Amino acid sequence: MAEIGVDVKKAAEFLQQSQVIGIPTETVYGLAGNALDPNALSKIFEVKNRPRFDPLIVHIPYKEHLGLYVKNIDTEILKLIDTFSPGPVTFLLPKMDIIPDLVTAGLPRVAIRIPSHSLFRELLDMLQFPLAAPSANPFGYISPTQAKHVNDQLGEKIPYILDGGQCEVGLESTIVGLDNGELTIYRKGGLDIDAIENIAGKVKVKEFSDSNPAAPGMLKSHYSPKISSRIYEDNIKLSLKTGALRFQNYLNMLPVKNQFILAENGDLNLAAQRLFTGLRWLDNQGFDQIVIELAPETGLGRAINDRLRRAVVQ
Ligand code: TXA
Ligand code: MG
Predict the structure, then answer these.
(1) pLDDT per residue over 39-56, tens digit each?
(2) Ligand 1 pocket residue status of 110, Cβ below 6 Å
(3) Which residue owns the Cα nearest ligand 1 atom 32?
(4) How far is residue 209's CA from residue 221's CA, in Å, rounded to a whole number?
(5) Residue nearest to atom 18 of ligand 1 (CA)
(6) Would you give the distance in Å from CA 4 to the centre of its chain?
(7) Which domains does the chain have, with CATH numbers?
C-alpha cells in the first residue's frame, strides 16, 4: 500500500524523479505526474489503466503561467478564467509545442486548470513544471474524494498519497472551451453552469455521448459501481439485498441500513460532496442491486445527475 501523509516536500521529490503520486484537489483526488515528462505521463496511463486516446488535464498554480503553455486565449474565456480560477473549472486552450502530445492525445488544445486546494497549490508552487492529473481511480470507476479511496484501488501501484482531507466540491471540474467560436461546456462539473452564464450569457452544453471526438473522455459508461445499478422507478422489484442512493429521504420499502442519503437538508453542494463516497459505500456492502434517485435538475444537480446517469450505463 502507498504511504499516506501531508509531507509536501516528499511529494515534490517523488514528482521530480518522474514518479506518479496521489494528490488532493478541491474537486476529486488526482493521480499526478510531471506534465512535461513523457516517462511520468506513460506511468499515469499505466497505473490508471487508461486508454491513451483520453487526454489529461494540466494543473498550474497561477494564471500568469498560462503564457508558458498556451497561446491566443479568447477574451470571453479570459474573462471566465479571471472570474473563476483558482477553482473547479478547466479550460480547453490552444497548446504550445512544449506540451507533449501524450497529454492531449494529439489534439491541438490542452485542458488547463488552476486548482484552489491549498496543499495542492503549495506542492505546485515548489515545482518547476506543471502537473498532469486525471482523477485517481481505475479507468471507468467512481472518482476518489478521500485519500483512503485512492489507496484502496491504486495503493499498490504508487509510492505516496498526499492527504488533503475530504474534497470540498466532490465533483470533477467543469470543462469549458470554444466550439466553433461558441462558449461550450464539455463536461458538467463542480462549477455551476448558472454561475458561468451570469458572466458570459447563455452557453452551449454538451451532453455525454459514446462518440464525441472533441472530448474523448466523455464516454457514456463512467463513474460506474461494480454492482448492477439503475435509476429508481416505482415498479422496480426490491429485496433485502437492494441498496439505495437517495437524495434527501429514505425509501419506505427498504431498511434504513441499506440506504445512503446524500443531503438530508436538500443542499446540492453537500450532495455533490458526498456523492462518490455514497456510491463507493453502496458498491461494497454486498448488495446485488443498487437503485439510484436523481437530484433536482437545477444548479449543481445537473452535474450530479450527469454522473448518476453515466454510473448506471453498463
Ligand atoms: O476536477 C478535475 O478535473 C480532476 C482533478 C484531478 O483536477 N481531473 C479529472 O481528470 O477529472 P480526468 O482525466 O478524470 O478527466 C478529464 C477530462 C476527460 O474527460 C478528458 O477527455 C477531458 O478532460 N480532456 C482533457 N484534455 C482534453 C482536451 N485536450 N480536449 C478535450 N477534452 C479533454
Ligand atoms: Mg476521471
Answers:
(1) 999 999 999 999 999 999
(2) yes
(3) 215
(4) 9
(5) 217
(6) 20
(7) 3-170 (3.90.870.10), 228-311 (3.40.50.11030)
Cell of 205: 452544453
* Span from the CA of 137 to the centroid of ligand 1 (angstroms): 13
Amino acid in position 61 = P
Q: What average pLDDT values come out for the chain (314 residues) when binned by 10 residues?
A: 97 98 98 98 97 96 98 97 98 98 97 98 98 96 97 97 98 97 97 98 84 53 88 95 98 97 98 98 97 98 96 84
81 Cα: distance to centroid of ligand 1 (angstroms): 17
| Protein residue with its CA nearest to atom 13 in ligand 1 | 134
The enclosing H or E element of 199 equals helix 193-200
- Determine the Cα–Cα distance for residues 307 and 222; give it in Å rounded to an integer: 8
Give the up-direction half-sphere exposure of residue 35: CA atoms within 13 A in the CB hemisphere: 29
**Which residue bears the cell 448492477?**
228
- Using the mean position of ligand 1's atoms as its centre, give its distance from the Cα of residue 58 in Å: 9
Q: Ligand 1 pocket, 89 CB below 6 A?
A: no
Q: Which long-range contacts (CB under 8 A, 24 or more apart) does 280-286 make?
A: 280/142, 280/149, 280/225, 282/225, 282/227, 282/243, 282/244, 282/245, 283/142, 283/225, 283/226, 283/227, 285/243, 285/258, 286/241
